[in-house]
Amino acid sequence: MIEEDDISLRRFAAYATKRGLHSARFLGSGKDGVVHETEGNAFPGFVVVKSFYHPSSYERERDVYLRCRELNLRKVLRCHLPYLLAWDDQWLSIEMTMVQPPFILDFADAWLDDEEPKFSDEVWADWNRKLDDDFGELAGEVRHMLALLRSHGIALLDVHPGNIRFN
Predict the structure, then answer these.
(1) Which residues contact 71 (CB under 8 A, 6 or more apart)?
(2) Among 47, 58, 46, 48, which Cα is nearest to 4's?
(3) What predicted TM-score, i.e. pTM, was given to this entire model?
(4) Buried b / exposed e across 89-120, counting CB within 10 Å, b at 16+?
(5) Residue 69: strand, helix, or coil
């Protein structure tokens, strides 16, 4: 992961230089890339830049945010979605608005339309049990949000309290 972090940090630095941004705060790294809160562009306030390790996760997340942008989808029920501001295929970086809870974010493992991988009934049952465990009494609301996203052709599979936060 350290080597991947180095690659993504170099991608972030190149993207930030190109866009006239600088990191105000390193927000962290995860399985898909590194995330920085940035400032210095024409958009008022802070924006977030996520620079990815792998093209496939970058392309999935970029394409989901492009779909949301086309639909002007900025909220699902009470949860805000980041709004795509800019992206760069060379540097595998996405620039988006920062959102505060309640929110839905991180679409690197999301799928558009009929591209969703096929899972066995057992895998889906485990996924649903984990959703119930993670969200408790809010699990029904989460399922409703996921169904609304699906109605727009977006299948969010990486569902946990870090990606869907209510407070």
Answers:
(1) 152
(2) 58
(3) 0.90
(4) eebbbbbbbbbeebbbbbbbbbbbeeeeeeee
(5) helix
pLDDT per residue as tens digits for the range 35-79 = 999 987 666 667 899 999 999 999 999 999 999 999 999 999 999
Q: Residues near 9 by Cβ (< 8 Å), separated by ≥ 6?
A: 34, 51
One-letter identity of residue 87: W
* Structure tokens given for 81: 């979605």
| All residues at 6 or more sequence positions from 158 whose CB lies less than 8 Å from its CB, including other chains | 106, 108, 109, 110
How many whole angstroms separate alpha carbon 120 and alpha carbon 51?
Answer: 32
139-151 vs 121-135: helix axis angle to the nearest 10? Answer: 130
| pLDDT at site 9 | 86
Which CATH number does 2-165 carry?
A: 3.30.200.20
Instruction: Find tokens 């940035």 and name the residue.
Output: 38
Give per-residue pLDDT as tens, 77-110. 999 999 999 999 999 999 999 999 999 999 998 9
Name the residue type at position 161: P
Q: Nearest CA to 33 among 21, 46, 18, 49?
A: 49
